[in-house]
């Protein structure tokens, strides 16, 4: 008998071909969940990733290439998960992009793309997954927001607006399903050393003529009192907690894992 907590359940993790999404997908697979991967990247590398996770954790894994800015493709991805695995039990909304510029200089098309991928996609996946969860009277919706869902930073108007929106949507989704077995919560990471953040580190090192290690320390010292990056594995462990029986009454929270960023 398989005693893993999520055996027989399926987790769909958007933006899961690298970084935070991959860390969370691996943590859920370790608990026995079948995984639907989503994200951009080299087709051969994605197939190796999918097959590797399936083999390592003894689960089934599939991949869907939905563009998270397109509602019709999101609908198709949820249908794909339903046809392949019988539904989505754990939905992790993680896909996100970033662009930095002051408000008056912010390109309109960049604003629209960030709102579409970082906020609207969370609405579309949720609305499509909820009917199946309601039939089973069990579901976990985990929205990967950001500390920028709780505080602001100059130059990040679209990202901060989208992530604040995700926190608000999380609360409403939790309240609407408060009398069911479906919970909805947000994880708000601080600096995590993902490919996206590594690029910011590299840019800073090049700009200031310092080592990569010095650039990491400089980046962290501005915001994150612990002086250490949050890891995808730590975020994955929090996602697992939300899926556990101990998380049954954790509803509508925005849980920051940020090395003390928001405590300041």
From TrEMBL:
Q: InterPro entries, from UniProt?
A: 3-OHbutyrate_DH (IPR011294), NAD(P)-bd_dom_sf (IPR036291), Sc_DH/Rdtase_CS (IPR020904), SDR (IPR050259), SDR_fam (IPR002347)
Annotated Gene3D superfamilies:
NAD(P)-binding Rossmann-like Domain (3.40.50.720)
Source domain of life: Bacteria
Signal peptide, first to last residue? none
Q: Which family does it belong to?
A: Belongs to the short-chain dehydrogenases/reductases (SDR) family.
Name the record gives this protein: 3-hydroxybutyrate dehydrogenase
């Amino acid at each position: 008998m398989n005693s893993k907590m999520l055996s027989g359940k399926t987790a769909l993790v958007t933006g899961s071909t690298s970084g935070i999404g991959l860390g969370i997908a691996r943590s859920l697979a370790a608990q026995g969940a079948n995984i639907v991967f989503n994200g951009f990247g080299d087709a051969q590398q994605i197939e190796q990733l999918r097959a590797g996770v399936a083999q390592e954790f003894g689960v089934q894994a599939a991949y869907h290439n939905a563009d998270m800015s397109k509602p019709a493709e999101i609908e198709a991805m949820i249908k794909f998960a339903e046809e392949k695995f019988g539904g989505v039990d754990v939905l992790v909304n993680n896909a996100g992009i970033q662009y930095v510029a002051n408000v008056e200089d912010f390109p309109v098309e960049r604003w629209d793309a960030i709102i579409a991928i970082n906020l609207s996609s969370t609405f579309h996946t949720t609305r499509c997954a909820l009917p199946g969860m309601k039939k089973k009277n069990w579901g976990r919706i985990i929205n990967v927001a950001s500390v920028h869902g709780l505080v602001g930073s100059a130059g990040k108007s679209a990202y901060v607006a989208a992530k604040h929106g995700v926190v608000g949507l999380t609360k409403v989704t939790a309240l609407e399903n408060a009398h069911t077995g479906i919970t909805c919560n947000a994880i708000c990471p601080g600096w995590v050393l993902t490919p996206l953040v590594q690029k910011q580190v590299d840019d800073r090192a090049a700009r200031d003529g310092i080592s990569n290690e010095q650039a990491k320390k400089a980046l962290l010292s501005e915001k994150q009192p612990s002086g250490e990056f949050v890891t995808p594995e730590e975020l994955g462990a929090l996602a697992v907690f939300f899926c556990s029986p101990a998380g049954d009454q954790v509803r509508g929270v925005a849980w920051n894992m940020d090395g003390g960023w928001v405590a300041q």
